[in-house]
Structures are given as C-alpha cells and as structure tokens.
Specification:
The protein has one domain: 2-Layer Sandwich (Transcription Regulator spoIIAA). About 40% of the residues lie in helices and about 25% in strands. Strand 4, helix 2 and strand 5 form a beta-alpha-beta unit. Helix 1 runs parallel beside helix 2 and helix 2 runs parallel beside helix 3.
Length: about 130
Amino acid sequence: MEIELMNEPYVRVVYDPKRFIGKIIWQGNPKPDEYKKPFLKLLEWVKDNKTTRFLSDTRDQGVVAPENRKWFEAEMVPAAIKAGCKRAAVITSGNVFKRYYLNMILSVVNKFDMPFKIVQDEESAIEFLMEK
C-alpha cells in the first residue's frame, strides 16, 4: 500500500514501501514556484526512509519552465543521488517539448552514472526500477 506524502491539484507524491520507490505523479501544469515542492517533499522523506528508486509520471504534466529544468539538473539530481537514489525512471506521453525536456535531464543524469530510463507506461518503469 502506498503512503501519500503530498496531494495538490497539480501533483501527487507517494511512496511505495514494498519497492522503496518514491513517485511524483504530475496532474497538470505547476506554477514555477510549485515545481520544486514535490521534489523537495520526496527528498525530505528520503532522509528518514529507505528510498533508492525514483519515478516521475509526466504524462499529464504541462510545460516545465527553463529555470525549473536548470534547478532540477543543478540541484535536485545531485541531492537525490547524495540521498541514496540508485535508479530513476520517467513515464511520458512523448510530445516533442516533453521529449526535449527529458532528454536534457537524461544528459545530466548520465554524468552521474545513475541508471535512468524514459518509458511509456508504469509497468515498464517499475520493471526497470526493480532491476538489480
């Protein structure tokens, strides 16, 4: 059973204790100041709970502002890895703007040598995250 950490009109953050997966499920277009909140909430949770896998479902996410993407790359990725994240996956519907955003993130994550994959559905994401 998942533990709900945050529930806002634009996002849900949940934790799967059986699989040690932190999930961010986007439900709309966050305002620039709202974008960071789910990531920081999950990072706060990780400090006291074993979380080695991260999943972001961006299928219903709106456009991400360039400054938020830069913050994610420069601050969030290193902080998540330092906190113990070992694998990450993103679910996307695949429109061209979202692909560009995710490919930019992929190039940053690759510098840290952390397994990261962009997939089309949650089953594929879970399968990847559970690999050894």
